[in-house]
Amino acid sequence: MTTASLPRTAARFALLLACFAAFALPAPAQRGKRDLPRNDPANDPYTEGDPEVWEQCGIVSMGGFAFGESDTKTIDESLPTCDIRWIETAHFKIGFALGTYKVPQKEKDKILGELTLLSETLPNLKPKQKSLDPWLRLHLYAQRAEQLYQRFLALVQVDESVFPDGTKAWDTTGTYWGEGPYLGEKSKYEILILPSEAAHLTYIRDNFGLANRRTQRWNIVSRQAITVTIHEKQGSLKTDTAMHAHVAFNLGHNFLDGFKFYAYDSPIWLREGIGHFFEREISPKYNTFDGDEGSVPEMTKKDDWHSEAVKLVRTGKAPRMAEMIRFNNYGELELDHHFATWSMVQFLATAHPDGFADFIKGIKGITNAEGYSDGSDLPGRQRDLFQSIFGWSFAEFDAAWAAWVLEAE
Description:
9 strands; 14 helices; five-stranded mixed sheet; single chain; two-stranded antiparallel sheet; alpha/beta
């Protein structure tokens, strides 16, 4: 806190106290209209905090819910200068703390299309905007998250009615679809977007006991909620499209993890490949690379990844599926693996969408004879699924993918 954030009289009083008593006063809540904290939903010019409007827009809540290892009130108190605006939708709980964004020419058409769609449900919104205020950005990210959720359901070719309501345990009969209604998880997916590395570190330290300076995905076991925490001071994330793509990358991971319940880790190549697939559908210009904690992954600013896949195939340096199925951590992924995992998922999702949906469903929700989740032999499971669904050995998959890469050149 600095005295500049206080009214003039209070600032002088705080200065006197600092000189004689060696303590500081807490900062007052930032105010908006109606003398409420700036992030109070009553200050949202698009819904004005009206529950009837929320219902029309598909909004469940705009604060006052469980989040992370605590709740929105506790997080607001621990990050008092962040002005986190909160929203809960059908499948998400989102905290957004970034400021107003001036729309550059290169993003104008993309954002106009998104705002036009948003204006169909959001009152008081005129799609043609030169800048996006924090409330509008919050609503925009809620729309984007829900679109990505539907994209994953389409990828796995599942209607969400198949998932249990979470009120009772699976009876070990029939097909196992997880433990709850959110792709198999009991709680909604969470996204927290913060303005600084300091706020990011405070939040993940307080909630998860971590000290990772980069984007952090986390499984909150106690609530069966999978979350991602992002701060703006990374790479190109001040650019809205880059942030959108980055959110998509991480939600791709989290959706796959939560699909049919997060009981074990999915294969590294598949998780990273789906993350890249989701991200590059938003934009190929901004790419995220996972690495092990404490290390920096190999990265590139190249956006034409198909050409890189072609080079790998033509030079005989393409990674082999028989090797990649045994990767145990992201630190094993080199740059060529990132090109390949994206390209392989692209190949399966576009050339063999039905088979790929069955493959993902076969990888997730594996249960043993006693009815418990069992991911103990994922390499063997992948071998069997490639054979039963596509009729391929690992080497035959490599050949089919390579042929597709060259044909699509």
